């Protein structure tokens, strides 16, 4: 370096260490810049706590202390002059820069290395912030995806599997496991997401009295460096795993279970940032599970209320009509006149047919998802009559005759629904209306002899001429 102005190489070296925001690449730039700046043949960077940044997987521990992150060029370092310079990040010791392979390191070399180390500390701090931001973004997106999935329709077991699967991917874990409390006071693995077949993981229990269990039941997270050797771990599958996080799924003082995220033996431990993000994810997932459970309970309550209403309707309408028909037939048996008997039987048959139509309509209505818009013609007719019930105070009786779904084209169906809507609106404004009967007949014959569909809407309200009952008829050819 004698005879050369060291300022341009130093500026180039300082600029090069900050050209990348990925931590491992930044460390490699630091090592390369140090070697080129001083003319050293060998350079390495050792970290004081490699696990803090997830760097322990690069190379094993060396006798010189620390973990060498990069070596330029690879090979054994000969017994020549050496120099070491510490690197600090925000007043915290990060590691040491080692250089060798040069006859003598001058004071100028050491001064340049100290300047480079100061810039390296800034670059490493920026890389840490960038990596933490990327991790935080991934975990936030993952938590949002879990919340969306849990609040959609699905059984409880699928919800737990969704949490385990997403957490395993985010944490880069070997498995995602959900444990829930047992009646005996322990915890049992109820679902597991792994790269391979979960095997005998599901069903594994933690016996009551375990130190880990006491922490988990108390709502405290547990972090384990090596599951296989940690005395707190007591399950028979612990030997398969190394670093692990066990996070309580707790919301509103309610402990739903535990989310365990073990890594394979020999994998790097979880960093402090990963632990913090995983704890936050578990809290949000627990809240989503509680909300999903509450939503499911509300849906069940709505189903039970609807069934109760249907039971009342069937009792008040169908059962009573069947009872009256039975009484009518009994009375018929005691009559002597043949004409009277024939007329009574005919009326009874008509009542039974009407009852059958009512039951069929009720069954069809039960088959329609309440939250979905109807796609069938029957469903659309029933939606109109159900909508009129809000104004009328009762649901109109609806009957269908013939294959209405296959015979009525879409254009005619739209016209019929418009006519039905108008007839129901008119009936709702008429006084004295207590019953409306809607009939859609797809087997009707029009006055000109053509096949057609006929809509009949009859109500028992006060007519304009002083009489009772009004019938509105609409028909169209098919």
UniProtKB/TrEMBL annotation:
Keywords: Kinase, Transferase, Two-component regulatory system. This is GAF domain-containing protein. InterPro entries: GAF (IPR003018), GAF-like_dom_sf (IPR029016), Sensor_HK_TwoCompSys (IPR050482), Sig_transdc_His_kin_sub3_dim/P (IPR011712). Residues 5-134, 155-299 form the GAF domain. SUPFAM superfamilies: GAF domain-like. Residues 457-478 are annotated as: Disordered.
